[in-house]
Amino acid sequence: MSRRGIAIVVGAVAIGTALLAGMRMATNESGASQRAASFSARTAWGEPNLTGVWKGVPLGASSGRDTFNLTKLEELYNPEARARMKELSAKDDPTMRCAPPAFPRAVMLGHPVQIVQRPGFAFVFTEAYPVFRIIPTSGRPHTSKQYLFPTYMGDSTARWEGDTLVVDVMSFNDEGWLASPQDKPTNASSGVWLTSDAMHIVERWRRVDADTLEYQARVDDPKSLTTPWDTPTVTFKRQPVDRIEEVLCRPEDGAETYLARLGS
Prior knowledge:
The protein is an alpha+beta fold. The protein has helices at 3-38, 70-76, 79-85, 105-108, 254-261, and strands at 52-55, 61-62, 65-66, 113-118, 121-126, 131-136, 155-161, 164-170, 200-209, 212-220, 229-230, 234-238. Mean pLDDT is 86; it is low at 1-37.
């Protein structure tokens, strides 16, 4: 065979090898995409499995960056709420008295949360201001009115929409805030993010893959907001531990102590 013939054969082999490699890459990428789209881990009783310790990054509005859509939230407060907010300051933030922050504020902190599931229930534990939520996942109604009373965390019930846990939360005590005094999207922001006892929250929890959990919420508070406020989607990553830890908060230390630690 001539040198030219050998070159043609070698070139054809190289092109064929490249095409085959490209086909394999495309197949692998397609397969990875399909696996991501179809990921579905299940509990022994058949529910989507959200169990684990999960951690996100701290979110908020400080240093010129708004990573939690708080600019929009601030615009939604009605005149009555703004009048009440003018009477409050950072010291009135209930977490300064060790009161637990409700979700969605709890996801902004960047501290781990732990989810444990049992048939018909999801238990959500928070490492900061250690509290727990017991969430029925069977779609049953909220607690009946004669036993329902306002709390910081509200009364939750949930249903599954495909692989997404949709949690409906109501019966809040109007003492919680939606963000921190350090969250100031504009120079005119007061850092006060109050709520009312009419607040109603719908959360969506979805496990995207083996190590990723997503959270998003809509907050409706007709006594405080002109329209509902939607949080951005928050991404949690699985942590290589089997439990969260307890974070100590002492009310007797006072708001000044905790504000000083936050640099306020």
